[in-house]
Amino acid sequence: MANKNSSGPLDEFTRRPSLRIVVWCPDLAAARRFYEDTLGCRLASSEADAVSFEFFGGRLRVQQGAGPAAQGMVSGVAEFGLDTGWEDWHRAVDHLNYIGVQYASPPTITGRGSPQEAAHFSIEDPGGNRLGFSASREPAKSEKQGA
Predict the structure, then answer these.
(1) Which CATH superfamily is domain 9-144 in?
(2) Terminus-to-terminus CA distance in the chain, angstroms?
(3) Which segments in the chain show pLDDT lower than 50?
């Protein structure tokens, strides 16, 4: 519980926490190829039933198995991914197009020419987990507006 003098959720921590995500995939070898080769993530650890990656400043653990959705449970995670810089987003699209990745939702730009101009696409890993990549043309403006 945050104290009343707190200015944000990180004030309670003695060191800055890092993001940790756990997803499931029935084929760990395919997941490892996807995260290492397609996205360029560094392998952090490997076990018989799981692999972990350094995921853009956080930690991603891929657990072997069908996952909550296949077991009739709701996972609560519709999509996870990155908010990138505008040019980085375009370079990612160029790279993914070059290596022939199938999109779950194709690269789309909305609000062209407006301060809210934004870009998004999503892909799925071998376990069907959806990764979204977004960018704002003018992130400083959208952050000031609370987006």
Answers:
(1) 2,3-Dihydroxybiphenyl 1,2-Dioxygenase, domain 1 (3.10.180.10)
(2) 25
(3) 1-3, 141-147
The distance between the two most distant Cα atoms of the chain, rounded to a whole number of Å, is 51
3-state secondary structure 80-93: EEEEECHHHHHHHH
Q: Are 19 and 10 in contact (CB under 8 A)?
A: no
Taking alpha carbons only, the member of 30, 92, 35 closest to residue 61 is 35
Is 0.90 surpassed by the pTM of this model?
Answer: no
What H or E segment, with its residue span, contains residue 21? strand 20-25
Q: Give the model's pLDDT for residue 79.
A: 86
Q: Which amino acid is at 24?
A: W
